[in-house]
Amino acid sequence: MPEHPTPPRPRRRRLLLAGGLVCTLAVGFALGSTKAAPVGHWRSAEGRATYLEAYDAAFAALPEPAETYDVRTDYGVVRVYRFDGSGDLEHPVLVLPGTAAGMPVMADNIPSLLEVGDVYAMDLLGEPGRSIQDRPITSDPDKAAWLHQALDGLPEKRFHALGLSIGGWTATNLALHHDEHLASLTTLDPVQTYDDIPLGTVVRSIPAAFGWMPKGWRDSFNSYIAGGAPVQDDPVGRMTEAGMHSYRMAQPQPTRITPEQLGTLEVPVLAIIAGQSVMLDPEDAAETARSALPDGRVEVFPEATHAINGEYPEKIAGLVDDFAAEIEAR
């Protein structure tokens, strides 16, 4: 496995511990939303207000976006931000966050990615954030369709996608159904893509998945995701906890992408795996990616947890820059 010895910096680690990289696992959401309305929704106006207050506080750490788009799709309105970068890439980077948080969970990544090129970042539809779902999402093709339609509505037509956790699955699922807008794809410790979620993690997620259970249980699970580090009470942590507590998702869990499906991808893929991840088996995931991706590169960060994006933002941006530049030079 390639070595990346640069140690994570405590500040960045702290910011992301309770962040959107936490996959509040599909089984938990499924159990918690058995009687849910057909679209994701806030359980209360008060909960929504608490979340948006934390969202805005976390967003304040980001550079000022050059443009804000609310793109209409068949499944709802998708919030997308564009940031002007200084890099030389022809196509911009598209950032897809993890679940149960919102785009501001990527606040540590945006500055280094802006040195690569322009950046577009969105709130996933059917998740906590400023995207608004208004039609049921019932299948993997539906999940690909809303994202494809959202990209159709943006001024740029091709992107180097970067997806974290569920965002990595979402981008890969898009590539399987509609790859016209993808110049390349980088997956950061993606769930249900190169390996199944371990049973032990599924079991530990169940108490955290119900909004009415104690906040401490969600904090405990978030800490477990990040290798046991303590969860700090920062805006990103408050945002994610508020999303887990107050937003009810109403869509099917992501289906495990099979090696056979990975083998059909025509988009070049950079697979970045966290060596200490509890959301997949790192060795199995890396081996699957190496053997199944027809045009892939695999990097393993031995000391990284599922909070990898906040632990190694500059290293990740450098890899994305090298990989995307190589693709554009072909």
By DSSP, the count of extended strands is: 11
Mean pLDDT: 85
How far apart, in Å, are the first and last alpha carbons?
26 Å
**If you compute it from the alpha carbons, what radius of gyration comes out, rounded to the nearest whole angstrom?**
18 Å
CATH architecture: 3-Layer(aba) Sandwich
Strand and helix order: HHEHEEEHEEHEHEHHHEHEHEHH
Overall outline = globular
Number of domains: 1
Quick one: biggest sheet? 9 strands, mixed
* SS strand fraction: 15-25%
Polypeptide structure, described:
InterPro entries: AB_hydrolase_1, AB_hydrolase_fold, AB_hydrolase_sf. It comes from Brachybacterium fresconis. Helix content is about 40%, strand content about 15%. The chain has about 325 residues and is an alpha/beta fold. It has a single domain (about 10-330), classed as Alpha/Beta hydrolase fold, catalytic domain (Rossmann fold), CATH 3.40.50.1820. Helix 6 (about 165-175) links the parallel strand 7 and strand 8. Helix 3 runs antiparallel to helix 9 and helix 5 packs across helix 6. It is globular. The model is unreliable at about 1-35 (pLDDT under 50).
